[in-house]
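INSTRUCTION: Work out how this chain folds

Token vocabulary: learned, describes local backbone geometry

RECORD BEGINS BELOW THIS LINE
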Amino acid sequence: MNSVFFKPFFPVLPVLLVCACVRIPDPVAKFCLEHARTEPEWRIEDAAKWIVHATRGGEHAVPNEFAARRWLETEWATLGPPPPDEPLWVPLTPDGRIGRLNLRPYQTQGGDLDALHAAFIAGAETFDADSRRFLRAWRSFGR
């Protein structure tokens, strides 16, 4: 090939290189980081848990329906009163579709254990828990 052919593309090359190197932050990682900045006691373990829940759902906690029920019953029986500022729902994704239901305010507000169990199982069964989403978010969080 003739180098004359490539000459018109030389001014565009630096722009293409920069665009190839720029990484768009993962939305879950970005949302997690925004929340972390508001929590003075936030640790890396909290970020890992957040990103696992946001990208993998509750499937990790549901080896089977019976075990999930037993775990929920144990948690339910040991709950104390919620702190005054504990929210019922904490969104884990920017769109709020995935989040964490805090059990203490749920119980205090008259939440039903059977309904909670049914929702937990249904959510774990229907959630698209793609491990690549977790890896993308975790790697993005680490940048």
In short: Residues 26-141 form one domain. The helical segments are 3-6, 13-21, 27-36, 44-56, 65-78, 103-108, 113-126, 131-141. The first helix runs from residue 3 to 6.
